[in-house]
Design brief:
Shape: globular
Strand content: 15-25%
Distance between the termini: 39 Å
Structural class: alpha+beta
Radius of gyration: 23 Å
Number of strands: 14
Largest sheet: 6 strands, mixed
Length: 388
């Protein structure tokens, strides 16, 4: 498997196929063919562009001087220049349709209007002879395109597997950029030490230390408890099948924004709704509001007698939840037992987005009917560690 294919497959596991793009050739207005980049991830207002460089083993003589020359030419110069070209293509082309790994054609020039945060990564697979000072180099600032991360493929995969959720990876890349620009010692410690510092205290002004690597080893990383990947593979696909319809992308974007602490809250409430509807109880919905994304979620359990009327519950309750939280958007989902297979559930989703405005009728309806379960706000730690 090529490096491009390997990274694309890995990205699809972390960032979801709908948001992942492998290297793609497109034609400009003058008919010339260009490659956007070796890989891209686009999730709402987040864009990650990757350029991959792999050392050809047949040219590797084990000479540190030769390997340093390869790094300077291929990673520090060529990959950075190619990423600059990628940014220029996205800014200047009127249309740039590319297929995501789901096979859906998406116009990438829409990133101009939607993206507010871009990470540029030069990924490389070095030889063992590459000098340590270059292997530890975290990136460089380009006058044309800004900061470009330098990451070995192994470190990149390790970061993604440790953090696991898309926007945690993005948070780390922001932290990594800041600490690289602010602290000259960043290039003197390993990637694991930088990652450990982020996990323990993401304050980029703090001094770096090789000892921080231990926080990676001590991280409580119960992926099965907070991961939404298996859930989405079963339940989003079961609802949104057919054609190349991408209306469900708005829901996927908000789910992708959940860090592990809020993803855990999502799973807790979904499990609760599944248990309630399976027992045939008639309980009010459960809600939670992850503040970073400004998109509350409402989970509405429906027993077998009410599952056919899901729209009568889903649409108004989602709207009332949005209004109650004074939020610009909201996602609601009804959960009911599947009549054809007792192992599964029927999930119907509703995404709404529009500016919040005062509504006295909605206020009165919430006050008089009390449609929601009583909720209490609480802070949930982002990362926890084993006591060693």
């Amino acid at each position: 498997m090529s490096l491009d294919d390997s990274i694309a497959r890995h990205n699809s596991d972390i960032f979801v196929r709908e948001f992942t793009y492998r290297s793609s050739v497109f034609k400009t207005k003058d008919g010339q063919e260009h490659e956007l980049c070796d890989g891209a991830v686009w999730i709402g207002d987040l864009l990650i562009l990757l350029q991959n460089k792999e050392r050809n083993p047949s040219f590797d003589k084990g000479d540190p001087t030769e390997e340093a020359r390869w790094f300077s030419k291929k990673v520090s110069k060529e990959a950075v220049n190619q990423l600059n070209d990628s940014v220029q293509f996205l800014q200047k082309e009127q249309s740039l349709p590319l297929a995501n790994l789901r096979g859906q054609m998406i116009d990438m020039t829409k990133t101009k209007e939607m993206v507010s945060l871009t990470h540029l990564i030069a990924l490389y697979s070095p030889s063992k002879a590459l000098p340590l000072d270059l292997l530890m180099k975290k990136g460089r600032v380009s006058k044309r395109v800004g900061f470009v991360h330098f990451l070995t493929c192994n470190d990149y995969v390790s970061i993604c597997n440790t953090l696991h959720t898309p926007f945690e990876v993005s948070d780390y890349l922001t932290f990594r950029k800041d600490i690289s620009l602010q602290n000259a010692d960043a290039d003197k410690v390993t990637e694991k030490a930088i990652l450990g510092q982020f996990l323990f205290n993401p304050d980029s002004s703090r001094p770096v230390s090789a000892r921080n690597r231990h926080f990676v080893d001590r991280l409580t990383n119960d992926v099965d408890k907070f991961s939404l990947a298996n859930l989405l593979a079963v339940y989003l696909d079961r609802v949104y099948l057919g054609g190349e319809d991408t209306n469900y992308h708005a829901i996927l974007v908000e789910l992708a924004k959940l860090r592990r602490n809020t993803a855990l809250e999502f799973r807790k409430r979904l499990t609760w709704a599944m248990d309630v509807c399976k027992r045939g109880e008639n309980l009010g919905p459960s809600r939670f509001y992850p503040g970073l994304s400004k998109c509350p979620f409402i989970f509405i359990p429906l027993d077998a007698s009410r599952r056919g009327d899901w729209q009568l519950h889903l649409m108004p309750l989602t709207a009332l939840c949005k209004h109650d939280f004074k939020s610009p958007k909201c996602i609601g989902l009804t959960v009911a037992p599947d009549p054809h297979d007792s192992r599964y559930y029927l999930l119907n989703w509703n995404y709404i987005e529009f500016p919040w405005e005062p509504d006295l009728r909605a206020d009165a309806l919430i006050r008089e009917t009390k449609p929601f379960r009583e909720a209490t706000g609480k802070m949930v730690a982002s990362y926890t560690f084993d006591q060693r």
